[in-house]
Every structure is written in C-alpha cells, then in structure tokens.
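[INFO] parsing input record for Recombination protein RecR
[DEBUG] input buffer:
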Amino acid sequence: MRSIRPVQKVIDAFEALPGIGPKSAARLAYYLLNVPQEKLSKFSEALIRLKKDTKLCSLCFNVGEEEFCPVCQDESRDKSQVCVVETSLDLLAFERADGYKGIYHVLGGAVAPLSGIGPNDLRIPQLMARLKTGEIKELILATNPNMEGEATAMYITERMKEMGLRDTVKVTRIGRGLPTGADIEYADGQTLTRALEGRGEM
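[DEBUG] output buffer:
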C-alpha cells in the first residue's frame, strides 16, 4: 500500500538519491514528518540555497562559493603538484587525510563507455590546458582503482604523450593502500596518505 500523496512524494524524492533504497527513503520521510516545522523549514531552505550559493572553481572545478575554491586560493599550497580526482567527494577525502599539500583537478567522473561517458564528457581538455602552461611539474593520477578509473588514467597519460607533455611533467599513480575496486571517497585518511606516499611513476 502506498503512503498518502505528500509523504509519497518525499519518499520518491529520497529514493531517487544514490544509495537510498525504498525502506531508507520511507524512514527518512517519516522522520521529517515528525520534525518541528522550524527545523524542517531550515532544512528546506538549506536545500534551496545549495545550488544558488555554490559554484564550480574556475581552475580546478571543485565546489566553492567564489570564483576560486579555498584550496586554489591557499597561497601555501604547492601549485606545481596537481592531484587528479574523479569527483569533489574524492578531493574532500584527500583533504580530510591532511597529508597532501598540492592542488587538484576534478574531472567530473571517469571514462565509462557502457554508460555513454567518453573522455570529452570529462574535464580532460581543461586539464591539458593547465598542463600546457608549464607550471605543473607533477601530475598525480588519483582516479579510483577500478576499470573506469584505470581507463581514465591511461587515457590521460596517452593524451599527454600525444601533446608532448610527458617530457616536462612527471606522472604518478596513487599506490599501495587502496584495494582494486575501492572508491576513494570511502577510504580512511591513513589509507589515502599511504596511497599518496606509495605513488609510482607511470
């Protein structure tokens, strides 16, 4: 039996989110139904403002509030070292690990032909443009250690070869500590730090 219409709409909205099944969606909807209206209004306002108050960084495509994200604005960061990640969640995971002092480039996903995502659907052209400036000395490929992540890393290295960038930029791949098939955003800080320390040249 389906829930009453207003509740069902909220359940459907939650169910559309990644990782939320029907039971979890129903629990969340009924939880919100019992929350005081003031808290519910604050929650809904925060959701409304989410897209309005955020923007993508003009340089690395991380989520921020200004033209450049806090990482790119930080003068103490090593601008010659760029860590390439699939999503802003992966970037957040590395920042929580608190061992990396360079900057980032967020691709916006990984090459996945079966899902219709090719290299041109990612921010690889923007990465190549950054590399051509000559300011980057090391590129750390920190895509997920799964089939899509590996294919993305290989495509980037091949593209760099075609553009003659391999002679001027050192390319490394995150190493030990991350099991094959794992997602970076779920790894703990120590594991990510070890993965960065154990990176190898490609």
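[INFO] The mean pLDDT is 89.
[INFO] shutting down worker
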